[in-house]
Here is the input.
Amino acid sequence: MNWFFQNSGEAASGERDVVVRKSSRRSMQFTNLGIRKDLLSPNLRGPLELLLSIIEPSASSGEEPYSHLGHEAGLVIQGALELWVGERRFRLEEGDSFAFASTEPHRCRNPGRVQTKIVWVITPPSY
Here is the structure.
């Protein structure tokens, strides 16, 4: 799935596997969901995936929860996030963080009127 992250620029020689410049982030747009994910990790070959998720107002990951192997953690850096993990529902605000086993069914939604931005970590990489 690494292919789906489109690189908007080329990394300078020697930086490719260490640094991701803002202007060179790979991005995946889920236009039907109102979600964009920018890859902050240099690649997906390591043990974790670091993303900046941008969720438009009222957008969600879908009505049905999903699960997969691994773990996830995140930090809300702007806006608000509703997060369902199993049967539990949480409302997170700017500065709040979370972590859970990805094997638990989960989904999320932006309940607010402004974009929600989250730094999201997934291990192992799921894309």
About this structure: The beta strands are 6-7, 26-30, 35-39, 49-55, 71-78, 80-85, 88-93, 97-101, 106-109, 116-123. The chain is about 0% helix and 45% strand.
